[in-house]
# Entry
Amino acid sequence: MTTGGPSYAAAGVDIAAADRAVDLMRAAVAAAARPEVVGGIGGFAGLFDASKLAAYRRPLLATSTDGVGTKVMIAQRLGQYDTIGIDLVAMVADDLVVCGAEPLFMTDYLVFGKVIPQRVATIVSGIAAGCLQAGCALVGGETAEHPGHLGAADFDIAGAATGVVEADELLGPDRVRAGDAVIAMASSGLHANGFSLVRDILARTGMDLADEPPELSGTLGAELCTPSRIYTPACLALSRASRVHAFAHITGGGIAANMTRVLPAGCDAVIDRRTWCPPPVFRLLARHGGMPGGMAGEAMERVFNLGVGMTAVVPPDETAAALDLLGRHGVQAWLAGEIVPGSGAARLTGSYAA
# Structure
C-alpha cells in the first residue's frame, strides 16, 4: 500500500495549526464583545443584534476597510506581533468616526505563509485590544495560510468595520464654514502610513532597527512599532458634547490632503506649522533620508502625519471647550489653524516650532 501521497499538509497548509490558533485567541476575542454580539467565534458569520438601530430616528450605516501597509514588515523583522492589530483597528475605526459614526463591530482577515498558532493569537489579541479601545466588537474573521505565495515568516492583515450615525448628525464638508477653528490632535508617531518610504530610508542609509539614535528615547525599531493612537472614543465624546463640523483622519497623503477631503468648495483650511513641534522620529527620517525641503518638504508632508493624527473643525466659540474635553480624554490637542474663504484646498504655512 502506498503512503505519504498528496495531502493538504504536504502542500503546506496545516489545518490543525489554524484550529489551535482559534483556541488560543478565543478569550481575547470574547473580551472584545459588546452586549449586541450573538454567539462567539467559530461560525460562518459574526452576528450582531441590530435592534439597537430601532432607537435611531434615521440610522445611516457606515463602513470602512483598511490594512496597515508595510508596517507589517517592521513587525515581522522585530518579531513583535502584539501591537500591529491595534494599528489595524485605528486605521478602520477612526475612518468611521470621521463622519460621526459609532463603530459597532469589526471583522479581520489575516494571511500567513505559515500559520504559527501563537503568532496568530498574538496578532488577534492586539486587534481585540484595539477594539476595546475603540468600543467596537470583534465578531469574527478569517485566518488563511498561503504557502508558495508568501514566505513562512510573511503575513498581512486587513479589517472591515461597520458603524452607525444619525442622518441629521452626519459630519462633513456641508457643515464647515469660514471662521471655523481647526484643532489638531497629537499622533503617537508614524501610525501605519509611510512605511515604504521608511524602509527605503533604512535601506539607503544603513540604519538598523536596533539602533538607538540620540533623538529617540529607545531603539528605532521600538519607535517604528509604536501603535497608532485610536481617537474614536474622544471624537465621539466631542461630537456629542459640542458642535463639531468635521473630522479629518490624517493618514496617507498627510495633513493637507486629508483636510481637503472635508472642505466645501468655497472654503480653505490654513494650518500653521508654528503651533507644534513634530516628534523627533520625523526629524530623524527627514535628516537621514535627505528629504528635499526637510520637514516642510513635499516628500515628508505628503507621506507622514508629522505629529497630527486627527483634526477637528469646530465653531470658534467651541474651541476652548473642545480642547478641554480632548484633554480629559487623554488626547493632547491644540488650535492649529482656521477655515477661510477659498476654493476647497488646505495649505500649511509658517515653519515648524523647534
About this structure: The two ends are 77 Å apart (CA to CA).
